[in-house]
Amino acid sequence: MMEAIRKEAGLRKGYVSEKIDTLYFGGGTPSLITKEEVRSTIDRIYSLFDVDAGAEITLEANPDDITEENLAGWKDAGINRLSIGIQSFFEEDLQWMNRAHNAEQAFNSILLAQKAGITNISIDLIYGTPSLTNEKWESNVRTALSLNIPHLSCYALTVEPKTALAKLIATHQLADVDADKQARHFALLTQWLGAADFEHYEISNFALPGFKSRHNSSYWEGKSYLGLGPSSHSFNGNSRQWNISNNASYLKALDAGDVPFEREALSDVQQLNEFIMIRLRMMEGIPVKQVSEKWGNELAQVLLQSAQKHIGYGHIVYLHDSLQLTKEGKFLADGIAADLFISE
Questions:
Q1: What is the rounded average pLDDT of the residues 330-340?
Q2: Which end of the chain is more exposed for a tag (fewer CB within 10 A), N or C?
Q3: 26 and 163 share a domain?
Q4: CATH assignment at residue 189
Q5: What residues have CB less than 8 Å from 33, skipping those under 6 apart?
């Protein structure tokens, strides 16, 4: 698989012409890849693309894959940022989520990474699960703060259809999630992290100054990106494309020298709606002047008109020529974005 991904990189080296300033090993469980494969892949990218000397190079890792040997290998290969799927520091929560790691591994994985000299660390935390009380949620956040984690990605648990978790809930073997509890946990989270000087720079993401995810910020700012591997998505500003998800078909196509993908050309209105959706999630909000300059003053005025009722509800403020979600509006971000979409 990694050989095929490196081959795809060569076949698609003309997709982006800009200097590359972030690399991201994500998707499935990249911490299972050998450190030699990580190094070979990074070396391949550097040989094909113009990569910035100070590029942010992130690897997603499960706590149970983090060892001194792996950390040394990843760091030596060029990894300078880790995104660790902690989810919770409580054993019962991890068991409820059917995670492979335990609470001790969750805590120790961070200490091991810091000891190895990787201090640019993001961790994922899940809130709103049936077993998570307000007190336990606060303990999870306080533990992260005590460990000097500079970036947190915090998500309300969503139950995806056709998963083991969905089946257990449907058969009443596990309790379902509570939307009111999730809203309460989100409100507490913003309060605690705000008091700790974290910037709430995107709906689910919080960072100390200087530690925003440069990679994810590129998505939210609408920059071009290239995705490699099965199911990976790419975007060049005018169209998006995605590789097929079937591993065997992907490998067979690359073996024949082809990249198996589907492509969708985006109309001007589709591009604008995508811009509305991602920028509304950001701290800076939707810059109306930029909408006017790129898509025309008429559509900018339609956007402003659509936002008026949400301004009236106290869910949006119009500040510095930008439509920004209020604290209350952040609970309703997806619905508000859909309501602001421009019709074709």
A1: 93
A2: C
A3: yes
A4: 3.20.20.70
A5: 2, 25
Residue identified by tokens 């911490």 is 31
Q: Please indicate, yes or no, whether residues 201 and 301 belong to a single structural domain of this protein.
A: no
What gap in Å lies between CA 22 and CA 188, rounded to an integer? 32
Average pLDDT, the chain: 94
Using one digit for the tens of pLDDT, what is the confidence trace for 314-323?
999 999 999 9
**Residue that is last in its domain, among 170, 200, 220:** 220
Convert the pLDDT of each residue in 8-27 to its tens digit.
Answer: 999 999 998 889 999 999 97
Neighbours of 344 (CB within 10 A): 8
Q: In the numeric block, which tokens belong to residue 276?
A: 């509305």
- For residue 133, give its domain range: 19-220
Q: What are phi and psi of 270, to 5 degrees?
A: -65, -40
Instruction: Judge if 182 and 314 occupy the same domain.
Output: no
Q: Are residues 91 and 179 in the same domain?
A: yes
* Amino acid letter for position 70: N
Q: Do the beta carbons of residue 127 and residue 88 sit within 8 Å?
A: no
Query: Rounded to an integer, what distance in angstroms lies between the CA atom of residue 332 and that of residue 152?
Result: 21
Helix boundaries (H) for 232-287 = 247-255, 268-280
- Residue 264, domain member (yes or no): no
CA–CA distance, 121 with 240 (Å, rounded to integer): 30
Would you call 154 helix, strand, or coil by DSSP? strand
Query: DSSP string spanning 185-215?
Result: HHHHHHHHHHHTT-EEEETTEEE-TT-S-HH
Provide the 8-state DSSP code for 323.
Answer: E
CB atoms closer than 10 angstroms to residue 332: 17
Does an H or E element contain 85, and which? strand 81-87
